[in-house]
Amino acid sequence: xxxxxxxxxxxxxxxxxxxxxxxxxxxxxxxxxxxxxxxxxxxxxxxxxxxxxxxxxxxxxxxxxxxxxxxxxxxxxxxxxxxxxxxxxxxxxxxxxxxxxxxxxxxxxxxxxxxxxxxxxxxxxxxxxxxxxxxxxxxxxxxxxxxxxxxxxxxxxxxxxxxxxxxxxxxxxxxxxxxxxxxxxxxxxxxxxxxxxxxxxxxxxxxxxxxxxxxxxxxxxxxxxxxxxxxxxxxxxxxxxxxxxxxxxxxxxxxxxxxxxxxxxxxxxxxxxxxxxxxxxxxxxxxxxxxxxxxxxxxxxxxxxxxxxxxxxxxxxxxxxxxxxxxxxxxxxxxxxxxxxxxxxxxxxxxx
Length: 352
What we know:
- By secondary structure, the protein is mainly β.
- It has helices spanning 2-21, 321-351, and strands at 28-33, 39-45, 50-57, 63-68, 83-90, 92-98, 103-111, 117-124, 128-132, 138-139, 147-154, 160-167, 170-180, 184-188, 196-205, 208-214, 218-220, 226-230, 236-238, 242-249, 255-262, 265-275, 280-284, 291-300, 303-309, 313-316.
- It has 4 domains: 24-125, Jelly Rolls (Sandwich), CATH 2.60.120.380; 129-220, Immunoglobulin-like (Sandwich), CATH 2.60.40; 226-316, Immunoglobulins (Immunoglobulin-like); 320-352.
- The strands form 6 sheets. Strands 10, 12, 13, 15, 16 and 17 form a 6-stranded mixed β-sheet that branches. Strands 19, 21, 22, 24, 25 and 26 form a 6-stranded mixed β-sheet that branches. Strands 1-8-3-6 form a 4-stranded antiparallel β-sheet, with no helix packed on it.
- The longest helix is centred in the last third of the chain and has 31 residues, at 321-351.
- It is elongated.
């Protein structure tokens, strides 16, 4: 009998340990928000301490939530104390809060539909809290390389997190996956890839998608643009001949530089500081250039990061044996093909 009692005790102890390790036994309280007046729930935090709560109204109820400090907590007369966070007419919300100073803070809740409502508050022990950026920021990568620095704190339930880019409520792409949960990541915003005012980044636990936080909305503007029209794919140009280089660009680009590259190697600047509004430049191909994988780069005179690259093109030597053979054999092959077609048609006509 004694052994059985010990076994039962060990069983319940195991359940408790499993519960605490998996957040089953997290603090939770259910109270009533009156139809008029308010319900207040208080908790103490030290400066910099982070807390996360799940607040859920039963059925389809709606409440207003005000996160307050202890300035005039004795009366809870609305408007007589500082509102730190406010939610209007919500049914379910997760609130993550970092105390700006040591104090007693309160969730002050009022009914949004003039009837009393049951509400459950649950303290969440596993969390991610983004500490930077904390307000709307404008990134302009067309002016200079822009790095978006994201800082966060977490309960470190796992070793890695994922960072996901959103526009509005739409997921765009994963910026990085399974990066170390070390509280900091620098994202270099690609030039010209995004444009808008409602981007945000989600930092989410790699092993538990329910643990996450979002940055505030931020803006990315790439209003300047350059697009090369010519040369196009497959262009071939002879040494000594002239090549037309043309482009389109926005009116806020005044001057551009035009450079020649072969593969990944810079070869020469063709012209510097040409008026962007000219939109065309004629380049005489020198006799000392020959080969494939050449391309043109056109970029803003004041900001090389604002640029566009042309398609690859080929420069040929008109006096090279290979070019002479091709120049001779292609016309001959064409003439032979025409003769063959002519003979075929004559014979077919004679048979008819």
